[in-house]
Specification:
10 strands, about 300 residues, about 35% helix, Rossmann fold, alpha/beta, globular, 3-stranded antiparallel sheet
Length: about 300
Amino acid sequence: MNDVNNPEADRTADPTGQVTDAAPQVTDPALKNVTDPTVRVTDLTVRHRRTTALNGVGLDFGTGVHGLLGPNGAGKTSLIRVLATVAPPASGRVEILGREPRGHRELAAIRRELGYLPQEFGYYPGFTVREFVAYVAWLKEMPAEDSPAAVERAVERVGLHDRIDTKLRTLSGGMIRRVGIAQAIVNDPKVLLLDEPTAGLDPEQRVEFRRLLRELGERCTVVVSTHLVEDVAAACTGVTLIDSGRVAYRGTPDSLVALGDAESVAEPGPALGDNAIERGYTTALRAHRERALEGAAR
């Protein structure tokens, strides 16, 4: 797995490096029982030196598109990196496709079924789009006879087929991001992990990407970390809000919109956001922090 992310990108605000809130998460009843989850984490804790990035997180994900929302430093990237098997947790249990990522054999078996796009991914500027995506297919141990067609299909799906034999060094930032998406889906993964995938994409490309996400989510588990709540509203079947290393809220985009609509009645005005899902996001975040303060005061 190719990841050049800063391992300390997700930090809690506590200067002691500890997550001190003990607030329970709020979960939409529709998400309480995930049948046949493909990804499961239990009591997951991740630390970067003296900083706790995730503290006792428990989550299940099944088939569909799952959005991870939260402020900068909330722990989203740390969670994605653990699920991608590029960073080990300090404690807790991780199961991906019924396997725990322990030992070379188990790791190799999981990684063959994973697709992963980090916030920044390393690539060889002298490679063409075709060569780079084919190289990743080889890393994922795809059968040689299947690789050429899979590469062309992945590049076509991200709208770069007319650039398939173009050197990466000549592509724009948005095109490079689409190459990153192509390499993540070349093996038709059963679990697809995307960290800020729409960064650098223009509005038209984001609309096309959302369509691709919905298509992929019909048959695999997609976990998308993003700051863009409109992407979650348009493409995701579930949403998880992470704050200060803990799960603050789980639900559907519709339930988050309903929360925002209710709050706009109780507190009119644009202070909580410009639309219903932004207001729902802010409302859920504030409620979680209030519960944390109440718990700390007991």
